Each structure stands twice: as C-alpha cells, then as structure tokens.
Amino acid sequence: MDRVFRKLRIDGIDSRDHFFSMTFSPNLEGLRRSIGHVGLLQPIIVREKSHGVSYQVMSGFKRLTACKQLGLKEIEAFSYIESEPNDLEGFHMALHENLTTRGLNLIEKSMVLHKLIHQFGLPKESIARDYMPMLGLQPNPKILEKVSQLVTLRAGIKRYIVEEEVSFGNAVQFLEFAAEDQAEIGRLISKLKLGENTLKEVLGLLREISVRDGLKVGELFKGEMEGIASDTTNSKVHKTNRVRKRLQEMRYPRLTELEKTFHEKRKGLGLGPGISLHCPPYFEGNKLRVEFRFGNVGEFKAIISKLMAVSEQKELGEMLELAL
Amino acid sequence: MGVIHPMARYGVRRIFLDRRVIGDRVAEGILNKLEGIPLALVNGPQEVTRRLNAFEDPFAEGKHSLLITRQKGDFVKGCPGTHHRICCGYQIINLVVNCPIDCSYCILQGYLNNPAITMYVNIDELCAQVEGRLSGDPQRIFRLGTGELADSLAFDGMTRFSTVLVPFFAGKKNAIFELKTKTDEVNNLLDLDHGGKTVVSWSINPEKVIAEEERNASTLEERLSAAEECQQQGYPIGFHFDPLIYYSEWERDYREVIEKVFERIDGKGIIWISLGGFRFPPYLKPIIRNRFPASKILLGELLPGNDGKFRYLKSIRVGMYRKIVGWLRDYEPSLFIYLCMESREVWEKVFGWSPQNNSALDDRFSQRIRSFSPMYQ
Fold first, then answer.
1. Is the ipTM of this complex over 0.90?
2. Whole-model pTM?
3. pLDDT tens column, B337-346
4. Candidate from A280, A283, A286 with C-beta closest to B313
5. What CA dihedral angle connects B151, B156, B160 and B165, to 10 degrees?
C-alpha cells in the first residue's frame, strides 16, 4: 500500500463522509489555536473516492474541521488510492492512529465497536477478543453489546457522558430509557451537579418511578421538578439535592408519609434546643434514640425534666407506635 | 398430577456425571430416566462450574444442566436464618441443590457457587447422618426439609428420593420431614407409608405472581390439586405464603388464593402455614434486573433492614400479614401460622405476642407437632 504526500484542496475532501470516523464531540479550541500558531504538524490521512474526484478522511477529522474553521483552503495529507487499503484495513489504520495519538472516550469506543459489528460485519466473538482489550475494555460479549449500543443514545446524553466523564456503569443506565425520555433526562441533568453516585441514584429512581407508574419521564418532570431544576436563584448542588429528595419521595410515598407524620409529632413534643429524637433507619428496628447535649449540671437537669415531661405526652406513644 | 415429563418441562440439556459415582446404583437409576441427553464425565463440581461459567448466563444454563455426584460433607445444616430476626431452627437437607424452576426472586441466583442442579446420590450416608443427629437429642423434635436450596419434588420423578426418605422418616420418633415444592410432582408419594411424619407443603402465590415471577413452576390450580391428593393420602399439609408480593390488587388476589386453598383442603389437616414478605440481599437486585428485565418485583417500597436485606416497609408487611392471618383464621381458627425471618416487633404487631427467641419458636413448633399428630405424643 503506497501513500502519497499531497497538499489537497479542503473543498475537494468529502467532510460528510464519516465511514472511518471515530470522533465524537471534539473540543477543537486548543487544536485551532495550535494550527493558527504553528500550522498543521501532522498531515491527515485520506483515501481517494469516486475515481479520484474526491477524498474520504481516514484519520484527521478534527484537524480537517479545525483547518476549515480557520478558513484555510488547503491541507497536507497522506493519500491512498481507492482500493488500497480496503475498508477494514483503512479502519484499522484509523483506529491505531487514534489510539496512539490520543485516547478514545466512551462514546468513541462505542462508535468503533458499533462499526465493527454493523459496518464491517465482524463476528462478535472476534470483536470481543481482538478489539475490546485494545480499547481498554473487558473482552466480554455482554459488555460489547452494551458499549456498542451507547452510540444510539441521544446526542445530548452522549455529550453529557463525554463532558462529565460518566462511568461505563452509569452510561449504560441511559440505554434503559426511550429516546424521548433521554431528551428529558438530558434537559434535567444539565441543570444539576451530579457525581457518579448521585447520577446512579437519580437514574435508578427515574427508571423505577416511570416503570412503576407507567409514566414518561417528561410527565414526571412537569410542575414541581421542572421548577426546582429551572430555579436560577439556587446553586446546582442545592437543586440537585432538592431533585434527589423529591424523587425519593415519589419512589417511596409510604415511607415519606411516615417520616412526615413522625416529624410533625416530634415537633408537637416541643423538645427544644439540645434534644433530638430519632426513629430507627427506615422505621426498621425496635428502639427510638434520644440525643442531648449539655454544658453544665443545670442544663442537664433541665433536659431530664423536659424528657420526663415528654414521657407523659400522648405524641410520644404515637411516635413509638408509628416507628416500631 | 404432573402430565409433563420433568425433562420436557425443565429442558434438561446436559448431564455431568462425576467419575466417582460411575456404576453407583442410585446414579444408574437417575441416568436410566435421562436417555438421549448428552452426558459428560467430570472430575467433580469445580469442573462443572468452570464449564458453565463459560456461558453468557451461567446460572440460566445451570438450570438445564444436571450434575450427579456424591456429597462429601454434611448433608444436614441449620437454616442460616438472618440477624436480628426470629428464626425457627429448621434443619436443611441438601440432597439436591439448585432448582429447575426459575423464580425472579430466587435467592439461589446469587448464592450458589456451582450453577448446575446438583444431585447427591449417597442417600444412605444422608440417612446415617440424620440418624446420628436425631439420636444425639432424642427429646427434641427435629424439623428437616429438602426444600431450601432446591424444590423438593421437581425432579422426584427422576430421582425417586422421596421413596427412600418418606419411609425412612416414617420410622422416626423425634423428626418430622418436609417436602416443599412449587410443583405437582406427587406421584411417587401417593403409595408410600409416611406414618404422618412427612409434611408435603406448597409455596403459593396468586396466579398473576406465578405467571410473572415463577417461570416453569406449576400453576396454583395444579399445586392445589396435588395438595388435595396428598391430603387424601393422609399427609399433613403445609403452605408457605412466601414471598408475599405487594402490588395494587394484592388483597383481592391473596384472598382468592386462600379461598381456593380451603375449597380443596381441609384446614384441620394443615400442620403449618408460614408468611414471609419478599426480601432480598442487595447483591440480588442487579441479578434480578439483568435476568428478569420485565419483572416489576423490585418496584415496591423495599428498604434495607438491620440484617442488610431489603424488605417492604414494615407498615406494609404488617398490614399484609395481619390481613392474611385474619383471612386464614376465618376459615380455620386453629391454624398454626408463623412468620419467616421477621423481627419480634413485627410478630408483636401481627399476633399480639412474639417468641422470646429462636428456641422458643422451636418449642412452639414441637408443641404444634405433638398436638397435630398422635404419633409424636
């Protein structure tokens, strides 16, 4: 396979031909700056198409886009003839070039696997064995199935996965939602600050509530939830906590009701500052817990007499009945 | 009665025969019923585990794979129960381990090292071990059963283990044996001399739950027909409402189950009924989601308890138990009903009393057995 070094007119390259592309949501700012300062250091790789009338990019989509955006008319390229390399060989070359010059993000790995399955028709066993370790993935057919499907997610979700560096475990959770729901989720989570654990919890709650109630995610968001997420006066962290709490309330309505009643009765006891009364976690246990703080004997006596008074209040009995 | 041969019903695809049991009489008896099914000789369970782990879903594949081998250790073990809960002191006999029925909620999915359905052929050694245990504590009435890590009867047509164990226990003064099942495989039982010392019990649920969550199990009607036949043959009958599943129509559906039970079964012949809400250790959740993506069983208000297991919110469980106990007692006030893996406070709320500890519950079982059957007095 001989390649020729050429200076090609950028408008002679078919930039819409993504046959070899494995690039998703690139941030081109740095690359543009670099090319602007010192020019293109690494030629792109192209293959002739339509009998030499045009070219398709094998590797260098980002460089080509950056050059175009800088208004350049020509680009340096290594050019192959139309039949050599063949499609799969060309894809291999592109893959190796990408892997050695930069890492692939999760969505790009998904694009590679999806193309190997659907564009090149390779058997899944050989993809798992020969390609997944190269991509830093476990050679497991189930993981192959899941990762290759990530490419089908809505663009907003894919961008979120890349920008927030969402883990594989959480990324595949998005697959359990219909495209319409993914769009709604994308709108919500872009307004929040979600760590890996919170994202996992929020997605789990959303899925469980929507399946249980037979509702679309958009329907869950209407009203209160939308209001919380769109509130510009609160920080993302604050909004995240409120959304999370609201979802928990929707997921566990009986528990929420119990907690509310317990809280109201506790308020009715008038414990005052320095004393707190707790139910067992999730009301699963056989004891209530009292905590108090004091700094001198006088405070201690006041707390004890308050607790003695509380023991006579009917609310305490009701709380015991409720909690235990 | 079972009309579908177990091999057809459960789709046995392969047999692994441990080289150590080649020529064993019991093993030969089982193999004779498995003609035409591919057989591989293996050097023990580890080899089977290795082979099945090569499948995408080893547990699902294991349900179609039989391992015929010898039990090297103890056949009988105390039920592990769970922390901070009242447990009944049941003794588990592991003669068959794993089950061809594929319930979404099954704890075995994350519990067993070897995915194959394992049948131990050294049943004589089991009997000797049981003898030793019973004679070591002659005052105690032991309750033993084969239905914890397996369905007691799913493969009985093939193994005929019941034809050894039922007569064996018929001669024991201080033991009662329980065959617990979700099948109607009772053919072997009908002509046996059981002496009133084998309880045949069914785990039951509404048809909706059976259809959605208990793949390959017999229908409620089939189970109750089998129970009726066993009762006609004089067997004490047991029922286990376990796991109870909470969903919007649960009251209507469980009432209907109870109605059907008492249409067919004389309540006076029911030795015990257990109730247990759906519960699961955390590791089971991803397994259920992965293996049964359409199941809605995980969508209830299931919350972690102080034993680490997830259960329905206590008020939900107590509400279910109280109502079911009431409906059952409307039919037969003298029923012996107990809770499985529940706390003292739940017992108190449901029955107004609670066993002080595990051994107190064991004592109550002994009293129940003595009052139920003159053979133990």
1. no
2. 0.87
3. 999 989 899 9
4. A283
5. 30
